Amino acid sequence: MASVQAEPIAVSAAADSGPWRLALRRLRRNRVALGFLGLFVAIVVFVIAAPLWADHVAHTGPNATHTLERITVGGEKRDVVNPEGKPLGPQWFGAGGKFFLGADSRLGRDEMVRLMYGGRTSLIIGVVSALITTILATVLGLLSGYYRGWTDSVISRAMDVLWAFPVLLLAIALGVSLAIGGLKIGPVEISGGSIWIPILIIGVVMTPYMARPLRGEVLALREKEFVEAAVAQGAGSLRVMFAELLPNLWSTIIVFFTLNIAGNMLLESALSYLGVGVQPPNSSWGTMISTGSELITSAPLLTIIPGTMILLTVLSLNVFGDGLRDALDPKSKVRFEARAGVAATGAAGTEGLEELGR
Amino acid sequence: MGRFVIRRLLGTVLVLFAVSVLTFLIFNVVPNSDPAQRMAGKNATPELIASINEEWGFNDSLPTQYVTMMKKIFTGELISYEGREPVDERIVEGIPATLSLCIGAAVIWMFFGILFGYLSAVKAGGWLDTTLTVVAVAGISMPVFWLAAILLNYLAYKTGIFPSQGYVELTENPLDWAYHLVLPWVTLAILYLGFYSRVLRSTMLDVMNEDYVRTARAKGLSERRVMRKHVMRNSLIPIVTLFGLDFGALLGGAILIEKIFNLNGIGQYAEEALANFDLPPIMAITLYGAFFVVLFNSLVDIAYAYLDPRIRLGESAQ
Predict the structure, then answer these.
(1) Which of A52, A162, B141, B235 could be a cystine partner for B204, CB 3.0 to 4.6 Å?
(2) Which residues of B touch A277 (CB under 8 A)?
């Protein structure tokens, strides 16, 4: 059965402070979590600053090629791409910030500029797809946990089917087919190269992993007295779900959302690496690893740098998400797995863990 | 109990059916993926395309095509569009590599996952715990193909300590087999290791607060005995569950790792087929992979129902 009982938090602190304030206080004491939140904010600022760096320092765009050009570093002329096809290494501020991290490939694009713009794509995909997953999972979890019966059966079976698919296989299959043809839902038309394709794929594919634990929590919550009280006062189903149950789910949802961004970014990088995520000329950290790894023996930095950015971003979200869970609900047993993109073909669930009724 | 098992297994069959239909649909409603066009090549005459359509039954209605394909899957007569080779032969060829990869990696991640988790929990809050936590979370947070590429570059291409690619049959040369698999094993294990040690750590910390642990301490058992006999034993249940599920999912092939290390397993075959829009192998591999996922899911559920009657009675929680 569902594991979480939202136990009243031990009110040893000030009796007048609400649960959110208590959580904030606990979070503030968690230096590690705050430190990693700081790292995440720094990464967000880094990618937001992309146009500034591109226009005022590097003087080039993320997709501009400089294959045959030469730059002057300390009075010495250097090829952006040498005759053997090897791109320029990091120049730091040697050329006034041009090719700060060198060129990206035979195309001679500015690696630093691509890294900043690619990070935007990666983060946007991670956050927007996590929003989609969270909204879908919350609505589905509320509906199936509240109504139970056949509503629950239909939703749970549908989730089972998505769950049974090896995650990466399903995402690749959708990626392969949608990247070519694009998508047309009624009046909305999405072209194959749009980043909405990976966003939608990831958002949908990850839904069951969040919907299942949420459903379990709703199942447990709806037996509580406050639900009974609301029903006795004549509250309708919608009101009970969204005004009574939902507020009790917020802490779980916020934690899941944070961890989901991390998992989705990893899935995006895997899809882009396999060529079925972000399509050229757009770049993401995943596509940059893919281009970089072709030159890994001669220019390993081109692989190491974008991968490190993914690692730092995902790490900061994971650590902060963990801290958030500890702060919001120290007794929480519900786990959300943010590793579908990590696991080879699929991530199995921990549902069994929750069902153990520890 | 009997009814529970039957209902669970029936559900499994339905889920697999839905998976197969969904896969079939994904690849049949896609524009530009006309298989006859692809098979005929770039400069195909309309006659050639028409004859391929006729020969392979692409003119039939979708339900008919679906039924034909499913029949062929179960009789092992499935032929791929690309290269026109028997699909089941390729899958059978891929099994040893995938299985070797999964088992070896599983041994490593279980051993170190449990070791790290145990040490973290026993020394909770200390520097060892912090270090292991950092290592574990970092392992979970990196893209697997990236780690693989970097390990390959520095341990294979640059220094030649390990062979860079390929798979050697165990029966051919056991030493060479292991030698070729060390890097893929380690890469795959690093991913899971972190997760397992984290789960074990948090479960152990919960169990340590249980009454029976207090009782064990109170009756004067040594700390080591309390940990091993009472805490560890009860904390391993979720780990074993998790392992069942993860291992089941992995048997469907580790797409990224197999591709990077060129192991020619099932995952790599799946990736090739996907890149070529080659529906027959995609169908077969998806079903094969999904089969293991639902099988291990059901096994875990049934094992629980056997161990804990509350689950059997609680209808809605399947």
Answers:
(1) B235
(2) none
